[in-house]
Design goal:
- The complex is a heterotrimer of chains A (271), B (281) and C (282).
- Chain A is α/β, with parallel strands linked by helices.
- Chain A is built from eleven helices and ten strands.
- Chain B has a single domain, classed as MetI-like (MetI-like fold, Orthogonal Bundle).
- Chain B is built from eleven helices and two strands.
- By secondary structure, chain C is mostly helical.
- Chain C is built from eleven helices and two strands.
- In chain C, a hairpin with a 4-residue loop joins β1 and β2.
- In chain C, α7 packs antiparallel against α8 and α10 runs antiparallel to α11.
- Chain C is globular and about 70 Å long.
- The chains are: A alpha/beta (271), B mainly alpha (281), C mainly alpha (282).
- Chains in contact: A-B, B-C.
- Chains B and C meet through α1, α3, α4, α5 and α6 of B and α1, α3, α4, α5 and α6 of C.
């Protein structure tokens, strides 16, 4: 078990980020197995709100699995079992009485490969609110506009909302997926390697977007791109073979890692 | 003869084989068209059969359309529901295997056996009598496996990513199926249903035993009335007719039947083509 | 969570409908047919309903003869066609041909029978001999009817052969035809066999088109030449049902034919599935 210590802030601008942060998600002694494979071991983690937290590590370290545990998408895999608690706002989300559909409304997800529905841009964004009966008719249009603006896509598509979503570029599709997730008014946003299928310019747009999103949401990012984690995230968890090796402010992880394993990974000794 | 020459000969052989395979369609269409065109007239299409070989085929046309329409209404939703179960809910166990085996068995069932079953079960046991209803239900037994196959395939083609995206937004499995999967699979399902309808309208053996003699002079008034159908009409005139008028009427009816069949089948394929192109696949 | 359970159960009920229908068919067929399914039925050489003689052998031979010839013709034309579609044809042409084949599957069999009766039968009568209505006519008509099924399934099997096998052969300098003959076809052989078995199943069950061209003599006999007229299981059922007496032994005998047909086709389906499963295990 690793102790998580937050060292005293040095940079006043950083101070702003951490000032009002509260615990949003707490992993307590959490383990997960796919069949016999022990995918997550002894996870203890506190994720704070209004920050970007990134999970980083080599392939197969369990970062995506950890991410998907937060919105219980792992439940879709039949051989998956877990033990331990994951609390969001002090409520254990793995409790059998929990409405997993409400959970997934509260915790939005953006996938590695952009996956808009084969519908119009408008209908993509409206899908969630319509489903959860949050709005209808004209109100839906308002929600769609607001979400697209929030995802920095509105200006590019406002004249062609009825066009098929698949006609957008990769970067636009991904922003559409973000917009679709924002439309249901989540509190937490999970992004699973959102830029790995995109070109550098689209990637930059999304990274800028993420920085804006943290003002309102809890953002968790999985990435295999070290530079991206360093650029964008406030807290970073480094994972290896299902365990969290080190979890600290990003600046500390990259400039002054405590564990040798972390240092080796950052300096590219393995990857 | 060296390998390269042999290859050329083989290729020619293959071309011939393919040409022969699809030959049947243009040959039939042209033959029916040429011979049947002369029979087409307003009186023929709107009149009633008279003295076996004379008159028109209006009740037969309407009868066929009613039969296929009702059969689709009964068989297509059931087939779609079955396909949804098999594609999305069925666990990988013995029960599912058994269900699939029986579906395949039904698919391979000779039409005459289904007709026989329809006769025993629907016409006699359930007292439906030789009727539109009995005919339509029997036809739906045939349509069921076709719809299941086409729908299941269409559903399986829908990418998993759409389902994940929907579930991640808080939808239940059923909501995902209804709002995302089925709409995405709709063209494939529609194509399958239309092709099934095309096959059903040409079915003779089944309707022979369950729907009516074929030469009804009246459009079926209720579900329990016997009904004529184009295939039965054609069969009777072709095998038992001896006047030129009778033959001509048979050709005319064949032409009408082929036209209806082709419109359904070609529409089905156009739909599929349009959507495949639209999705860029 | 609970409503998901309900949905799942309702859908399961829908899916079992086919199974229920098959079960009912078996039940009803056997209920009637059992009265006539006896040794005399299976080995009897005479079918004379008027004299209460119900021997199925000539009719069975009729079906088997016509089906065998048809499947041979269908194989000779269909397998090369499938090879062409899978290996040689450009993408757009393959789509057109496959779509055409899908349409051909649905062509009303009565119209094909009509064509056979009006064109093929006189042709045989005038140019080859006999009454025209014959086994030969049956071969041609039935072959073309099962052709689309054979082609579709065979093409699927050939396409299923992994590309690496083909590329390895070509990389060693073989021509495309050599590769097909030595690598692709053997690999696809179980799929092709399954396709042919299913083709036979379909042929056995085909009613209308063959009915109109094979002659259906009053008293079925064992044919001696391909120009002979024959009776088939399906055509016997179709024709005699129009004038059968209810409750008579004749009726039971006809249902027994139905049982026989059902039985044959189901066994063939089973064998075909088995053949494919064996391939998948390898």
């Amino acid at each position: 078990m690793r102790e998580i210590r937050y060292r005293k802030p040095v940079d006043p601008f950083e101070e702003l980020t951490f000032k009002d942060a509260r615990e949003k998600i707490e992993f307590d002694d959490f383990d997960l197995w796919y069949g016999d494979f022990h995918a997550l071991k002894d996870i203890e983690l506190d994720i704070m709100s209004n920050m970007i937290t990134s999970f980083m590590g080599p392939s197969g370290c369990g970062k995506s699995t950890l991410l998907r545990a937060i919105n219980r998408m792992n439940d879709l895999i039949p051989e998956c079992r877990y033990k331990g608690e994951i609390e969001i706002d002090d409520v254990d989300i793995n409790d059998p009485d929990i409405d997993v559909y409400e959970l997934r409304k509260k915790v939005g997800m953006v996938f590695q490969k952009p996956n808009p529905f084969p519908m119009s841009i408008h209908d993509n964004v409206a899908y969630g609110p319509k489903l959860h009966k949050m709005a209808s008719g004209k109100e839906l249009d308002v929600v769609v506009e607001r979400s697209l603006k929030e995802a920095a896509l509105w200006d590019e598509v406002k004249d062609r909302l009825e066009d098929n979503a698949l006609s957008l570029s990769g970067g636009q599709q991904q922003r559409l997926c973000i917009s679709r997730a924002l439309a249901v008014e989540p509190e937490i946003i999970l992004l699973d390697e959102p830029c790995s299928a995109l070109d550098p310019i689209a990637t930059t747009k999304i990274e800028t977007l993420m920085r804006r999103l943290k003002e309102k949401y809890t953002v968790i990012l999985v990435t295999h791109n070290l530079q991206q984690a360093a650029r964008v995230s406030d807290m970073t968890a480094f994972m290896y073979l299902g365990e969290i090796i080190e979890f600290d402010r990003t600046r500390n992880i990259f400039e002054n890692p405590r564990e040798e394993l972390t240092e080796n990974y950052i300096t590219g000794k393995f990857g | 003869m060296n390998e390269v020459t042999k290859e050329r000969w083989v290729k020619s052989g293959l071309y011939v084989a393919v040409a022969l395979s699809i030959l049947i369609l243009p040959v039939i269409v042209v033959w029916v068209g040429v011979n049947g065109f002369g029979a087409l007239s307003w009186e023929f299409l709107t009149g009633r059969p008279y003295r076996f070989e004379y008159g028109g085929i209006f009740p037969q046309i309407v009868g066929s359309i009613y039969l296929v329409g009702l059969c689709t209404l009964l068989g297509a939703p059931l087939g779609l529901a079955s396909a949804i179960y098999l594609a999305e809910y069925a666990p990988d166990n013995r029960i599912t295997q058994t269900v699939r085996f029986f579906t395949e068995t039904l698919a391979g069932m000779p039409s005459i056996v289904i007709g026989l079953f329809g006769l025993q079960f629907l016409v006699f046991w359930l007292q439906l009598k030789t009727s539109l209803l009995a005919g339509a239900i029997s036809l739906s037994f045939m349509m069921l496996p076709w719809t299941i196959r086409a729908s299941e395939e269409a559903i399986k083609t829908v990418p998993q990513e759409y389902r994940h995206a929907s579930l991640a937004l808080g939808a239940t499995k059923w909501e995902t199926i209804v709002r995302v999967v089925i709409p995405a699979a709709a063209p494939g399902i529609l194509t399958g249903v239309l092709l099934g309808m095309g096959k059903a309208i040409g079915e003779t053996a089944v309707v022979w035993l369950t729907a009516g003699s074929g030469l009804e002079a009246f459009v079926p008034r209720t579900l329990r009335s016997p009904t004529g159908s184009l295939p039965m009409y054609i069969y009777l005139l072709a095998t038992q007719g001896h006047t030129t008028q009778g033959m001509q009427n048979a050709f005319g009816a064949s032409l009408v039947l082929i036209v209806i069949f082709l419109s359904m089948s070609v529409t089905a394929l156009l739909i599929r083509n349009y959507y495949l192109r639209k999705l860029g696949r | 969570m609970r409503s998901e359970d309900i949905v799942s159960r309702i859908l399961f009920l829908c899916a079992s409908f086919s199974a229920i229908v098959v079960f009912l068919i078996t039940l009803f067929m056997l209920r009637e047919g059992i009265h006539a399914l006896n040794w005399d039925f299976i080995t009897g050489m005479t079918w004379k309903p008027g004299r209460n003689l119900f021997g199925i052998v000539p009719t069975l031979v009729g079906t088997l003869t016509v089906v065998t010839g048809a499947i041979i013709i269908a194989t000779v034309i269909g397998v090369p066609s499938a090879i062409y579609l899978a290996e040689f044809s450009p993408f757009w042409l393959r789509n057109i041909i496959k779509s055409t084949v899908e349409v051909i599957v649905g062509i009303p069999s009565v119209v094909i029978g009509f064509f056979g009766l009006m064109v093929l039968v006189p042709f045989i009568r005038d140019n080859i001999g006999g009454r025209g209505e014959s086994i030969l006519a049956g071969w041609v008509v039935l072959a073309f009817m099962i052709l689309p099924n054979v082609i579709t399934l065979t093409e699927d099997s050939i396409r299923a052969v992994p590309r690496d096998h083909k590329e390895a052969s070509l990389a060693l300098g073989a021509t495309r035809w050599q590769t097909i003959r030595r690598v692709v076809l053997p690999s696809a052989s179980s799929g092709i066999r399954a396709a042919l078995i299913l083709g036979v199943g379909r042929a056995i069950g085909e009613t209308m088109a063959v009915l109109m061209v094979v002659g259906n003599p009053e008293v079925p006999w064992i044919p001696t030449s391909i120009l002979d007229r024959v009776r088939m299981l399906t055509s016997t059922l179709a024709i005699e049902f129009s004038y059968v007496e209810w409750g008579s032994q004749h009726q039971y005998a006809l249902f027994a034919i139905g049982v026989l047909l059902f039985f044959l086709v189901t066994i063939l389906n089973f064998v075909a599935t088995f053949v494919i499963r064996r391939r998948n295990l390898k």
